[in-house]
Design goal:
about 10% strand, Spore Coat Polysaccharide Biosynthesis Protein SpsA, Chain A, 31 helices
């Protein structure tokens, strides 16, 4: 049929050319329209044939998938291992590789969630960072302090280079770590800075890596809002590819392309890649190093496999018929999820990179190799080069035909057009293609339903159109970049996609509860949190203050947890660097009442530092107070309680530290002390500074409830808290005076600073005594 169709297209093209030559000289408009219509007839035939070829290919994969499912259902062939077997299996040492260039917005959350999620002990995480990416380095250093198994893998040159180059440096850092520590890793696992991992991800790798040199686990899109059509089309595509296409490919060819994430290499396979490329296991000349490395492993004789495993995971949800939550066990696919782009242009850029690396550069660098099945799959990897423009061509044809029919319907005398399809075989091909389209839609609906639920299924057919439009944009961009590369011989740059990471609420990590947030960031141990909750039942105290009382958490981390829950940010501050006009927005008494310090004006707003979240009535009252003083917009952030307490005590009395500030200014001017050392010195003095009421509660001289009563009375009378406590008989005078001495005076702070400045290593001042 296809050979006959090709002859028909040639014949029709010749007739149209002759007809056009005959009528071109006559100058008749109708003749030009008819000529254009004849060209559309040719385009319809060509498109129908190309779509038929591609559809037959897709149908073959569909049949293979269903035959494979039927066989597995009807027999006991390849039953998955029981979950308890995975739990008891001896744990291999796993090195997780995370390349990071300009990932400061997501890397800390990703690392914290990874350690919180994985139900596995024997793993280390290596993050590749560049020397000229200070923001990402800072975030990696922050999580290294909280998670001892996180390592910063240095890239010895500035970025950006390529993901492959970053991965190569990570591998070298892992090998160096092995030499230094004697700890040998059995598995190398690839992840990205936006990956949301599954609790059984490492246990699945630990079990199945013995069966193949490389295994690939499913990668899916995070569920997105249904109105975000671009983001949702990734849900459809990855659900189908990682449920049908890749399992079939793995079964038929024994080779599975890596998805770049959730890809695990056996140590033997990684060593083979290192030897093959002289210490550079990933191809730096490829934009899709993951696709390239899987084919190179296959050429070296190593088997790779796609692994789909389901585990029952304990989850919580809101109770249906009562308050609170219920715990249940849900059967889940062990898969890595991530946020894919939600903007059309960003999606085009990402898919253009994939098309460049797989279809164009893969063709150039890998060629055609292996047996018939492998060559067939190489064709499937590259057929997007004709299916993407053909799909768009089909949309353009349909739009033009409908437009022409509309003109004729409105103005019948315009031109007498023949049928757009005037040959029976073309109708046959179109009808077959229509049936293939229905089949394609049904499969897309099924896989979207299976992986993302009923609510995302209805719009899947619409998103097929979105997918085709993005594919054409990617084809156009990829061809333009590739042709430019061929003409100019300039290398194609790494076109990195900006990443996003879900919030704690989206991760269901208890963003609404302070204890869960602190545990997520590893700021407090499970034992300390449990102890604090038990103490809270005996004598109530807000959890954050209770943890500080017990010494279970640092106030810097508590501020970060409050910021995470409030979707704002946390910051330490030097009270003596605040503009006096900004500081004057609140009086010292008001600052003590609200536990708030004005920091700075920024673009018409004033940043207000809080020690802890304010109750709604107090926050409204504070906003009204600031509004009466000309503040139209107050932005609230969180700061360590010690910074707030120190500022409330001393910020409005700058002369208390005039002498020591003059000395630090002289040392800084002479180069003995730099700005960062001076800031560290002041922070050392502020650290641990406590409010009077908190000290009395910690010493057992006052209950939290009595403290709140005294604070309310102090606010009403305008008298100091110390006098109020004594007058109300809530605390003995000697206990209050002792607490005031413990709190430290300005004279004591001055002396501590002067002693530090007079130390022999003034350039690196010793920490002042803990106050």
């Amino acid at each position: 049929m296809i050979a006959g169709a090709t002859n028909e297209i040639r014949t029709t093209t010749a007739e149209a050319t002759a007809w056009l030559a005959t009528h071109a000289a006559s100058g008749q408009i109708e003749g030009w329209v008819l000529a254009y219509w004849s060209l559309l007839q040719i385009a319809v035939m060509a498109s129908a044939v190309l779509i038929l070829v591609s559809s037959i290919d897709d149908m073959f994969i569909d049949l293979a998938y269903w035959v494979r499912r039927i066989i597995r259902f009807c027999t006991f062939w390849v039953r998955p291992p029981k979950q308890e077997w995975l739990d008891r299996h001896p744990q291999k040492r796993i090195a997780i590789m995370v390349p990071a260039w300009q990932e400061s917005d997501v890397i800390a959350n990703m690392v914290a969630n990874t350690f919180k999620t994985f139900d596995y002990q024997q793993f280390h995480l290596f993050v590749g960072v560049y020397a000229n990416d200070a923001d990402t380095r800072r975030e990696v250093d922050k999580v290294r302090r909280r998670f001892p198994n996180v390592h910063r893998a240095e890239v010895p040159h500035d970025g950006p280079t390529s993901k492959a180059d970053c991965l190569n440096c990570i591998v070298q850092n892992i090998l160096l770590h092995e030499q230094k520590t004697g700890e040998i890793f059995d598995v190398y696992l690839m992840h990205d800075a936006e990956d949301v991992v599954h609790p059984y991800g490492l246990k699945t790798v630990n079990w199945f890596i013995d069966e193949a040199a490389m295994i690939q686990m499913p990668v899916l899109s995070m569920d997105r809002k249904w109105t975000s059509m671009v983001a949702c089309h990734y849900m459809d595509e990855f659900a189908e590819v990682h449920t049908k296409d890749l399992p079939v490919r793995s079964a038929l060819s024994g080779m599975t392309p890596s998805a770049g994430v959730a890809t695990a290499f056996h140590r033997e396979a990684m060593n083979a890649l290192v030897r093959e490329k002289n210490g550079q296991p990933f191809n730096t000349d490829s934009l899709t190093e993951d696709y390239d490395v899987a084919h190179r492993l296959s050429a070296l004789g190593y088997h790779s496999e796609f692994v789909r495993y389901h585990a029952r995971i304990e989850r919580t949800r809101k109770a249906w018929f009562r308050k609170g939550e219920v715990t249940y066990r849900r059967r889940e696919l062990v898969a890595t999820k991530e946020f894919f782009p939600d903007k059309f242009a960003t999606s085009v850029r990402q898919k253009a990179r994939w098309m460049l690396g797989i279809s164009l550069m893969g063709w150039q660098q890998l060629g055609w190799f292996g047996g018939a099945i492998n060559r067939y799959y190489l064709y499937r990897d590259r057929k997007a080069l004709f299916t993407a423009p053909t799909g768009m061509f089909g949309y353009v044809i349909v739009a033009q035909v409908l437009g022409m029919w509309g003109i004729v319907a409105i103005w019948p005398q315009a031109v007498d057009l023949p049928p757009i399809i005037d040959r029976p075989w073309v109708w046959t091909v179109v009808m077959i293609n229509f049936l293939f389209l229905v089949n394609r839609i049904l499969h897309r609906l099924w896989f979207t339903l299976s992986n993302h639920g009923l609510k995302h299924m209805p719009l899947a057919p619409v998103r097929i159109v979105i997918s085709n439009l993005i594919a054409f944009g990617a084809f156009w961009r990829a061809m333009r970049q590739y042709l430019t590369h061929l003409i100019t011989r300039r290398p194609i740059a790494w076109d990195k996609t900006q990443h996003a990471y879900p919030s704690l609420e989206e991760l269901q990590q208890g963003a609404g509860r302070l204890g869960d947030t602190l545990r997520f960031w590893n700021h407090v141990s499970e034992a300390d949190l449990t102890h604090a909750l038990e103490e809270q039942k005996l004598h109530y105290r807000p959890l954050g203050l209770m943890l500080l009382d017990l010494g279970a958490v640092e106030d810097e981390y508590l501020a970060e947890a409050f910021a995470e829950r409030g979707e704002t940010y946390a910051s330490m501050f030097d009270p003596f660097r605040i503009d006096p006009e900004v500081l004057a927005l609140l009086t010292p008494q008001e600052a003590a009442t609200y536990g708030a310090v004005p920091l700075r004006r920024t673009n018409g707003s004033v940043d207000i530092a809080l020690a802890e979240p304010l109750p709604a009535p107090m926050r409204i009252e504070l906003e009204r107070t600031l509004g009466r003083r000309g503040v139209k917009n107050a932005r609230f952030l969180f700061a360590p309680l010690s910074d707030i307490a120190f500022a409330i005590r001393f910020a409005w009395d700058r002369d208390a530290f005039a002498d020591v500030r003059a000395q630090t200014a002289q040392l800084r001017a002479s180069g003995v002390l730099d700005a960062s050392q001076e800031a560290m010195l002041w922070r050392t003095v502020r650290a641990g500074y406590a409010r009077l009421g908190d000290l009395l509660v910690r010493e057992g001289a006052l209950s939290h409830a009595d403290l709140q009563s005294a604070l309310a009375a102090s606010r009403a009378s305008g008298r100091p808290l110390a006098e109020t406590l004594i007058d109300m008989g809530l605390a003995p005078r000697e206990r209050v005076e002792a607490a005031l001495k413990t709190q430290k005076s300005a004279a004591w702070v001055n002396q501590a600073l002067l002693d530090a400045l007079k130390s022999p290593a003034a350039g690196e001042p010793e920490p002042a005594p803990h106050v």
